[in-house]
Amino acid sequence: MDTKGCDYLFKVVLAGDATVGKSSLRLRLTENQFDPEITSTERVEFGEKVQTIGKAKTGNQPDVADCFENLPYLDFCRAKTWLWDVPTQETEGNLLPYFRDTSAIVLVYDITQRNTFENVGDTLNKIRTCGMIKATTPVLLVGNKMDLADSHRQVTMQEGYDLARQEGCIFAESSAKTGFNVKNAYRHLLQDMIDNERQKQYLSEKDDYVRLYDKGPSLCFTWCCC
Predict the structure, then answer these.
(1) What SMART domains does this protein's entry cite (predicted)?
(2) Structural domains of the chain ordered from first start
(3) Which of 28, 70, 79, 143 is the most exposed place for a label (fewest CB within 10 A)?
(4) Which strands sit side by side in the sheet containing 8-16, from one edge to the other?
């Protein structure tokens, strides 16, 4: 992965049951596209997302169109995210090593298939107890397929919000098909990843533990507009 010109490098793993739309979310986030013929992931698929945050303090303009100008706490910087879309059918022993050195996790369920939501707690517990991630690793819980909410919803927004709050996750409902809320959900996750990285840098220079930012409990949000 080319790291030239980037201030931060992140690895994000997409997890969740088959058919929930992980690959479609990866494609929407990295290429702003939707492929109706996309199939379930049979091997690890990768994608890159380069994001410019804040306004440059020089006369140079950011060279990506989707610049996040108003993220709190953040000065101008560039972050590159390496997205790992892991195959659901892998055995547990083969799957968990994918989470080594992970900066964040995107855990996806389908709001039109209740069983995918009911499996979230077990999946998250396995990930958190596998010894591959830190307790501070941000988790974004995504209820996908919002475009079908009016006719096929089986999981309410409140249920998703309550589970995210219980597990200390960021929460969003989105649609990989239309792009609804995908960018905004990533914006919140990116902010948490950068906060974690800056805190690590700060603590490496100090003997005592001091939080960089007092943001209160883990951020949960129920509705965000693009």
Answers:
(1) RAB, RAS, RHO
(2) 8-203 (3.40.50.300)
(3) 70
(4) 45-53, 77-85, 8-16, 104-110, 139-144, 170-173
Tens digits of residue pLDDT in 147-198: 999 999 999 999 999 999 999 999 999 999 999 999 999 988 998 998 888 8
DSSP 181: T
What is the CA angle 184-185-186, rounded to 5? Answer: 90
Interacting residues of 81 by C-beta distance below 8 A, sequence separation 6+: 10, 11, 12, 48, 49, 50, 51, 103, 190, 193
Q: What is the DSSP letter of 60?
A: P
Return the ∠ at Cα 219 (arms to 21 and 27), rounded to 5°: 25
Rounded Cα–Cα distance for residues 210 and 125 (Å): 28
Task: Look up residue 109 and give its two tokens.
Answer: 């369920």
